UniProtKB/TrEMBL annotation, chain A:
Gene: LOC113703636
Domain (GST N-terminal) ranges: 1-82
Coiled coil regions in record: none
Lineage, opening ranks: Eukaryota, Viridiplantae, Streptophyta, Embryophyta, Tracheophyta
Protein name: glutathione transferase
Region (Disordered): 231-250
Automatic annotation (TrEMBL), chain B:
GO molecular function annotation: glutathione transferase activity
Organism per entry: Coffea arabica (Arabian coffee)
Enzyme class per UniProt: transferase
All copies of domain GST C-terminal, residue ranges: 90-227
GST N-terminal domain mapped to chain residues: 1-83
Protein name from the UniProt record: glutathione transferase
């Protein structure tokens, strides 16, 4: 029986699992759970994941949610997944676990609420919340600084000085990609100071093509839609936001 | 494997790691990092953990690790003699434990630690109590306790996920709930009374981990007394 992956490509952790499966040739059925249509709140989906969140997987009778647990399970349970994704070496594995843990209260806790409260909320029928966005931006900036100064130390192109990407790179880069829906000027302000982070995002993307771009296509469509909404509303667009300092990955 | 643990017994995740090592007879040197004295902010400790948090560990004066869940997983796998139920080799069971540990960060941990900090501990650190933040965290905490009651604890088995023996997930989450002892008794009761299974699970986990559980939590009860004194002095 084929692995079922319940996902919304607008969800950062969903994309990480989708890309991982594709890159590793894991056979699966993608079941779309459209958050903008509140499909995660249906009783049917509650049977799959009582926390009503994506991603979730069903592998035979086995159900699992939380993207990091899913990535760790898939890396261990499927033959043919290269060791660098989640090494068997306990020391390397422990370090990857520590990034994945750190992510929850740091990068995720900054990036996700910033994008939601500054841009995406209306698409989900919620109001924008500038105060929450400002608080989230502080956490995000501190987290990016920590990635720049600590997690990207070492010889390799990836987190923890690795020469090859791990599930940690995939999870964290997919989170940062959500910033694409912000104005280019805002995104440039937040990401601009962190040269190593910018390069690492590129390296991770290149290492997982063409699946990375395919899974992120929906995000760029959302960005275009939001830009159109802004200009239709006649809001004041400054020159600098039309000339991105940081080229967008369209 | 020469193990050093950098901990503070008032820190919930520090306690989980200490209890795990004592229960499994893992030898270690306990290096106390007093958070109330700002010792976690010293340049020396920054060498150990650049995130400046406890717990952290160092093995053989070379390998450093922080984040309590990563530490617990490492010690469970790397120490001989640790019984399988703590972090099973079975990939299905292990994955389920991983999902609780992940869920914990933004749910029980965020709610419980946030409520205790904003309503009780902030003044001890010379910060003002943030009533709104405490209220927000209490909502998250209540929802999390309800999810443990209705989903993570099953009909069969005394421990999370219906397991008949405790795992590192039980240890981590129960150490977190113990921090609620620092709250006013009536607040704590209001939060925990609706959840009979949660209270039983906390008891069962404590019992399964004695005498170390009681010993490691000693400072928390001292803090509780100190807070009561401070409040009656006012």
């Amino acid at each position: 029986m084929k692995l079922k992956l319940y996902a919304d490509r607008m969800s950062q952790p969903s994309r990480a699992v989708l890309i991982f499966c594709r890159v590793n040739g894991i056979d699966f059925e993608e079941v779309k759970v459209d958050i903008s249509k509140r499909q995660q709140l249906t009783p049917e989906f509650a049977e799959i994941n009582p926390m009503k969140k994506v991603p979730a997987i069903v592998d035979g009778r086995f159900k699992l949610f939380e993207s990091h647990a899913i990535l760790q399970y898939l890396a261990s349970a499927f033959p043919g997944v290269a060791d660098h994704w989640y090494p068997a070496d306990l020391f390397k594995r422990a370090k990857i676990n520590s990034v994945l843990d750190w992510h929850h209260s740091n990068l995720r806790r900054g990036a996700a609420p910033l994008v939601l409260n500054k841009a995406l909320a209306p698409a989900l029928g919620l109001p924008l919340n500038p105060k929450a966005a400002a608080e989230a931006e502080i956490i995000l900036s501190a987290s990016l600084a920590k990635i720049e100064s600590f997690w990207l130390k070492g010889n390799g192109r990836f987190l923890l000085g690795s020469l090859q990407p791990s599930i940690a790179d995939l999870s964290l880069v997919c989170e940062i990609m959500q910033l694409e829906v912000l104005d280019d000027e805002v995104r440039a302000r937040i990401l601009g100071p962190h040269k190593k982070v910018i390069k690492w995002i590129d390296d991770t993307r290149n290492a997982t093509q063409p699946h990375f771009d395919e899974m992120h296509a929906i995000l760029f469509k959302a960005k275009e839609k939001l830009l159109k909404m802004h200009s239709d509303a006649g809001s004041d667009q400054t020159e600098s936001s039309r000339k991105p300092a940081l080229p967008s990955k369209i | 494997m020469k193990l050093k643990l950098f901990v503070h017994r008032l820190s919930q995740p520090s306690r989980a790691v200490l209890i795990f090592c004592k229960l499994n007879k893992i030898e270690f040197e306990e290096v106390q990092i007093d958070l109330s004295k700002g010792e976690h902010l010293s340049p020396e400790f920054k060498e150990i953990n650049p995130m400046q948090k406890v717990p952290a560990m160092e093995v053989d004066e070379g390998f450093k690790l922080f984040e309590s869940h990563a530490i617990l997983r490492f010690l469970a796998c790397a120490s001989p003699g640790v019984a399988d139920h703590w972090y099973p080799a079975d990939l299905f069971k292990r994955a389920e434990i991983n999902s609780v540990l992940d869920w914990h960060h933004a749910n029980l941990r965020h709610g419980s630690a946030g409520l205790v900090f904003h309503s009780k501990l902030a003044p001890l650190f010379g910060l003002p109590s943030d009533v709104q933040a405490a209220a927000d965290c209490e909502k998250v905490l209540s929802a999390s306790l309800a999810k443990i009651e209705s989903f993570w604890l099953k009909e069969e088995g005394q421990f999370l996920l219906g397991n008949s023996k405790p795992s590192i997930a039980d240890l981590s989450l129960v150490c977190e709930t113990m921090q609620l002892e620092a709250l006013d008794e009536k607040v704590r009761q209001r939060l925990l009374d609706p959840h009979e299974k949660v209270r039983k699970w906390m008891d069962d986990t404590r019992n399964a981990m004695q005498p170390y559980f009681g010993e490691i939590h000693g400072v928390l009860f001292q803090l509780k007394d100190k807070l009561k004194e401070m409040e009656s002095d006012e």
